[in-house]
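Hi everyone, sorry if this is the wrong subforum. Our group has a chain we'd like a structural model of before ordering constructs, and none of us has done structure prediction before. Sequence below.
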Amino acid sequence: MKFLKVKIIRNTNANEPTMQYPVTYNAAEVEGDIKGRIIYDGGLSRGEDTEECLILVSDDLATIYSKDKDMEVLTKAQANTWLASNDGLKDQPNEQVTDINRLTAIIAKKSAGVELSQEDLDALDPTKDVLGINTTPKTVDTIWSKVSGLTVMP
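Answer:
Right subforum, don't worry. Here is the predicted structure as tokens:
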């Protein structure tokens, strides 16, 4: 597994998606290969013309994509540096919804007057290791720690 940094530019063509990925980037191929989350730095949403994202993919796909000037394989240390030094990531909240279905069920229980279980309460606590609302740590080890069989090249 290797980390791949992808440069995305703002698409100014009307009636097309805002995010324009590199020409060789195939969303369906990446979706079938990606491990864990995609971390975006949010540049486009802040009005910038470019944005970067970090993904974890197979060695084979990383090798193919790294031939594109807008995609770069990063070592684990480089990926951690990107996460720690990226000003755009500092503005992003550390909490995110990780299981909308669970949260919807909790809302339904609460609305019906049903007492929440300890697991429900833990899902609402970002410091707990239960899907629901979780923090977004900014190191590769914590972001991708739950990927089964993960072995990242140093």
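For your construct planning: The chain has a mean pLDDT of 85. The chain has seven helices and seven strands.
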